[in-house]
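Q: Structure tokens for this one, please.
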Amino acid sequence: MKSIKVISWNVNGIRASVNKGFYDIFRELKPDIFCVQETKAQDDVMQKIAGELKDYHLFSSSAVKPGYSGTAVFSRIKPKSHHKIMGKKEHDQEGRIIALEFDDFFLVNTYVPNSGQELKRLTYRAKWDKDMLNYLKGLDAKKPIVLTGDMNVAHEPIDLARPDSNYNKTAGYTQKEIDGFDNLLSAGLVDTFRHLNGQKVQYTFWSQRFGARAKNVGWRIDYFLVSHRIINKVKSSFILDKIMGSDHCPLGIEIAI
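A: Here is the predicted structure, written as tokens:
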């Protein structure tokens, strides 16, 4: 049985990332599948970027609003099928989902909405979490899921450097958002990093203010979750926090197929 490597990265603008070494990082990591979030690019731009990565199939989903949100997947393995909508108009206009169907699982790449300054979008975020859960349950009924992306929530106090000062005050660490993540786990998904690395402290995101990354004042808000029935196929789950080029770092899993 062979393993494949799946990488995920919120690039905070694919064009900016290209100027900061995206291609070199991509080739160094040698992924079988590479998921990106927050591309901030329309599909035509993504096609041009994919032109430099000849061995990969590109699947991209852009927001109706230019320069906003957006997800993409580069896959060396051709999927059986793909789609990029949840089936809810209020969510589907923001380019936040790409689902690829492979022989053994669905891969879902997502960029979950941020609850925003002063938590102005928290109500919408809670609606997203509920609708996303139902969407994922529908897929999981057909075959196991590998869910990855910027989930915009730190699940437990260990997942951010300053839990006490952020709890219920800052987007990404409110009880509503934590409950949404808990619901994913209750539905049978497993946080691969925590499952395989115990209480290890590593972050995937750092604010661009106040020298947060240099001080490692970070958050773990990017994840790989898999259906419980395939957790034994996940050989490793890792965070590549030395790789620069975005306010997030890449993360990945190796999974047997």
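A few notes: The chain has nine helices and 14 strands. The mean pLDDT is 97.
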